[in-house]
Amino acid sequence: MTHKPPTYIVNLILMATCSCPVFSATGIAHSDMESFDTVIPALMSRWNIPGAAVAVMKEGRLIFARGYGYADKSKNELVMPDSLFRIASISKPITATCVMRLVEQGRISLDTKVFPFLDLGVPSDTRINQITVRNLLEHTGWLGS
Question: What is the mean pLDDT of residues 35-63?
Answer without folding.
Answer: 93
